[in-house]
Design a protein that fits this description.
The complex is a heterodimer of chains A (209) and B (203). Chain A has 209 residues and is mostly helical. Helix content of chain A is 70%, strand content 3%. Chain A has a single domain, classed as Transmembrane di-heme cytochromes, Chain C (Fumarate Reductase Cytochrome B subunit, Up-down Bundle), CATH 1.20.950. The chains are: A mainly alpha (209), B mainly beta (203).
């Protein structure tokens, strides 16, 4: 039996970027839910501490990702961002469930997930900062800020649930988690799910790190 | 206790733990500039003339809960036996959740729908809403409606409460303070109506 060849899917920088974002999101989600849900608020108490954790994690979120981008493989991250940004005709067909719709390194769903995550990230930070400023200066107090911040939480929970399902449970896609953990994926899997990328891809040992 | 914030309530606290109401030890003290400092235990407070109202609760952070049914006592009935002295011009409300404190002028406290509420939607006031008794002043944002009340003191003038020390308006009229709507002006601090309560202020 032939040994499965692996191909490189994510660089160290990309994986660190992803997992830092994930860790920050879970800390923010956990502390945010304690601040938001009466049942958890009562159970946990210590609102001032939880508030500090939530606030400072939020403050550190952008600089942490920026530092990883600047100190790591910037070029590679930019290339990845461009790949995520481009929706081609096959992506449109893929979203309409028309087949065949051969996908590149990222399928249209992953591109959509990345765009929404980025948009939510910006809106979370802006609305969060406005909430913080509004506690200190009435100029920044708007009735809809808290509603936006909460709504983003619900929207991103939906997105996260889908993401976790596809990465952990769905048989056809859960292999992709290996790519985000180890950096490489099975070439046959990649050729089937991401043919436009994998056919161009080289075996792991011949690729850039 | 519902899992999600049903009815739109958010529970805000400022200290490490939420005060717990113990009927055996809880007292509401009325003191300061009064002839006779008074205390009420829970039963004594509930034996005072009862008032009911339906009013809307506005939080300064932007959420609102409409048509909350409150049951409780009017402030004048709580002050009656203590008998405020003539130089008393304001009330200082102290929460069991220290250092939370806030003030109303006597004029503000005399608005017809200001209530010391021990019931909410037909049930004893839940812990997270300030059990056993909280202040309700529907015309003002919720941070004026002190939860977990333990003391009411008559004082010469209103000063800065917990959030006011952090820059919030002392006269927290809904729609006209804290950056919302027009700038405040009038004798009571702005434009109180005392008419926020939707139903008759039933005794």
């Amino acid at each position: 039996m032939r040994e499965h060849r692996r191909i490189r899917r994510f660089s160290k920088t990309e994986r660190l970027f992803h997992w830092t974002n994930a860790a920050a999101f879970f800390v923010l989600l956990g502390s945010g839910l304690v601040l938001y849900l009466p049942s958890l608020a009562i159970l946990v108490g210590r609102r001032p501490v939880v508030k500090d954790v939530h606030f400072w994690t939020g403050v550190a979120w952008l600089p942490a990702l920026a530092a990883i981008a600047l100190l790591g493989d910037r070029g590679g991250l930019l290339r990845t961002a461009r790949q995520l940004d481009v929706f081609d005709r096959d992506d449109v067909r893929w979203l309409k469930r028309e087949r065949p719709a051969p996908q590149g390194r990222f399928n249209a769903g992953q591109k959509l997930n990345a765009s929404l995550t980025a948009a939510f990230f910006v809106l979370f930070i802006v609305s969060g900062l406005l909430l913080w400023l509004g506690e200190r200066d009435t100029t920044f107090r708007f009735a809809s800020t808290v509603i936006l911040h909460d709504g983003l939480m619900y929207a991103s929970l939906v997105l996260l649930t889908g993401h976790l399902y596809l990465a952990l449970i769905h048989p056809a896609t859960k292999h992709s988690l290996e790519g985000m953990v180890t950096g490489s994926v099975d070439e046959d899997w990649a050729a089937y799910h991401h043919p436009k990328w994998a056919r161009r891809g080289l075996p792991l040992e011949e690729q850039d790190p | 206790m519902p899992l999600v914030p049903t009815g739109g309530w958010r529970i805000y606290t400022v200290s490490g733990s939420m005060p717990r109401f113990d009927p055996a030890t809880w007292k509401l003290s009325v003191g300061g500039l009064v002839e006779r400092p008074t205390t009420f235990d829970y039963e004594q407070l509930r034996s005072l003339p009862r008032a009911n109202q339906i009013s809307t609760f506005h939080c300064v952070t932007g959420w609102t809960v409409e048509n909350v049914r409150w049951g409780g006592v009017r402030i004048k009935d709580v002050l009656a036996s203590a008998n405020p002295l003539p130089n008393a011009q304001a009330l200082e409300f102290t929460s069991m959740e220290l250092p939370y404190i806030d003030y109303l002028t006597l004029d503000q406290a005399a608005l017809p729908d200001v209530l010391l509420a021990y019931e909410m939607n037909g049930k004893p006031l839940p812990r997270e809403h300030g059990a056993p008794v909280r202040l309700i002043i529907p015309d003002m944002y919720g941070y004026k409606s002190v939860k977990w009340l333990s003391r009411i003191d008559l004082v010469p003038a209103a000063s800065a409460g917990y959030w006011e020390a952090l820059g919030y308006d002392r006269d927290a009229w809904v729609g006209h303070s804290n950056g919302y709507g027009a700038a405040p002006k009038s004798k009571l601090g702005t434009q109180p109506t005392g008419k926020t309560a939707r139903t008759p202020l039933v005794r």
